[in-house]
Every structure is written in C-alpha cells, then in structure tokens.
Design a protein that fits this description.
- By secondary structure, the protein is α/β, with parallel strands linked by helices.
- It has helices at 34-44, 54-63, 76-79, 86-95, 112-125, 134-137, 147-156, 187-195, 211-220, 238-245, 263-270, 280-292; strands spanning 15-21, 66-71, 100-102, 130-132, 160-163, 201-204, 224-227, 252-253.
- The longest helix has 14 residues, at 112-125.
- The radius of gyration is 17 Å and the shape is globular.
C-alpha cells in the first residue's frame, strides 16, 4: 500500500482541474454498465477515448502543466454495478503525484461501513477529498441518516464534491434508467452546508435547472464553492458567468469533466467568455488551492 502525498510544484502549475473521472481500472472494469456508458457517450457526443487509464491521464495533464483531481463514483447499492477500484486510483495517483490528486468515493447507502471506509481511505491511502453523485447513488443528501459521513469528512478535514443539476448518466433512457434528478437539487446541500460549517462543499457543474439556487447558496455559505465542469463554457448560464466575474470570483473552480469533455475544448471555449483578467487565475488555480487546503 502506497499512501499519497503531494509532489506538485503548485507555484509552477498553470491550472488545477477539479473534476475528472477515472472510468476503468487495471482489471478492465468500467465505472458504468454498458447501457449507461453508451447513453452517456451519446448524450455528450463523446468522440475521444472514454476510458483512458490513470497513467495516460497523468501524462495528458503533465503535458499541459496542469494538475487534476481524479475519482470514480461508488454507486453499487443503487445501481448494482460494482465500482472500479478507489484504492487503485489512490495508489496510482501516488505514483504520479506531480500531477494527480486522488479523491475517494464511498457508497452512502452502506451506512456505518461507508464511514469506516471513508476513514480508511483518508488515513491509509491519503485521499484528499470525496466525490458524491446523489442521483446516481440514490440518496437525499440532507437526510440525517447520512450525517455521520459528513461528520467523518469534517473530522478528516477534506472537502466533499457533490454532483448537482441534471446528469448525462441515464439521459435519454426509459425512466432515465431509474436515476432521479431531484436528489441533485443543490438546495438539499444548503442544509448540509448550514449544519456542517467546517465542511468544505463543492457544487459540481452549473446546476441546471437550479442555477440561481446554486449561486445563492455559494454566495450565502462561506464553505460552499462551485466547479464549472460538465458543460462547455460557451453554454454556461449568463447569470453564472456574471457571478463568477463578481461576487463569486473567489468561489468558482476550473473543472472539465474529462474525459467526457476534453480539457483543450473547455479551455478554448472559456477564452470566449468575458472574464476579467484578474479573475482568470482565481478560477484556474487559486480557488482550488483554497478548497484543497494548500497554502500559497
């Protein structure tokens, strides 16, 4: 077992991508079943390789002088599909700790076992945060049954990144493959942010159709941030762009959703936004360092 420690030269780094997916492990097991993977590829019109290895992801970001937060989602209870290995992600990230930052994932529906695993991933593997997808994992984030997870996250001092808004997972399938969008309403996380003020929470993606609520929460709660992943910047809701440029300039984070959205495309489209020059470095790196607890 190799425990992850940062080996990143943050001063020299151009950007930190706060949202990337490892969709296959060393045994060839994919993070989604074939039906969901095909639907996701159709929804995002993915033309690039959807299952790059973590080694190839490291090289991808190394060439761009970027670091990347890497993770998978453990949704076994809700989907019946075993996740790819979180432990492997952490160990391989440790081998590429000059560019990769591992986040863990636990299945909230596993209760006490999820809390125990969370602590083990932090203590033994050195993961730097956790990813949750309420719609895919089938849980309502503000249900107090899940508060022991947030207590453990707060105790560990690591951030929690939650999928919010609509999802491409299950999109276009009958019944959305049973995936319920309401679990990813960011207002459910307003309760969590209020009840756990020491827990850093990242609302992933423009939270369509709840973008105004997302902006309000990030404005109101000092411990809440927004990552801009999952959408090409040219499709960002205009009110989110305005907020990123003004009152939320210290609260928004670069994220691509790689490999669903390619980093180069995201960066190219971001250049087309009317973002103030002094805001750009905050979005690309400085705000992420605050979320990760890294001192400049």
């Amino acid at each position: 077992m190799t425990r992850y420690e940062y080996g990143i030269d943050f001063d020299a780094l151009h950007a930190i991508d706060m949202h990337t997916h490892v969709e296959i492990d060393g045994c060839g097991h994919r993070s989604l079943d074939d039906t969901l993977m095909a639907a996701s590829e159709k929804y995002f019109k993915s033309s690039e390789e959807r299952t790059p290895t973590i080694q190839s992801m490291a090289e991808h970001y190394r060439r761009r002088n970027m670091a990347a937060v890497v993770f998978t989602v453990d949704a076994q209870s809700a989907t019946g599909h075993a996740p790819n290995s979180v432990e492997e992600i952490a160990e391989l990230a440790a081998e590429h700790n000059d560019v990769l930052i591992p986040f863990g994932s636990v299945d909230p529906l596993q209760g006490k076992a999820a809390v125990k695993r969370l602590r083990r991933l932090v203590d033994d593997y050195g993961v730097k945060g956790f990813k949750f997808h309420p719609s895919m994992q089938g849980f309502e984030p503000n249900n107090r049954d899940f508060y022991p997870i947030y207590e453990a996250l707060t105790e560990a001092g690591v951030p929690a990144l939650f999928h919010t808004g609509q999802t491409g997972i299950g999109a276009g399938l009958p019944g959305g493959h049973g995936i319920k969008l309401r679990y990813s309403d960011p207002m459910l996380l307003d309760d969590v942010a209020a009840d756990f003020p020491e827990l850093t929470i990242v609302l992933a993606h423009p939270s369509v159709p709840w973008v105004d609520a997302q902006i309000s929460i990030a404005t109101h709660k000092a411990n809440v941030y927004i990552d801009l992943s999952g959408w090409s910047p040219k499709y960002f809701p205009p009110q989110l762009v305005r907020a990123a440029n003004t009152m939320l300039r210290h609260k928004v984070l670069f994220g691509s959703d790689f490999p669903v959205i390619q980093v180069d495309r995201w960066m190219h489209d971001f250049e087309g936004l009317d973002i103030k020059p002094e805001v750009t470095p905050l979005v690309f790196k400085d705000n992420a360092m605050s979320v990760l607890g890294i001192k400049a």
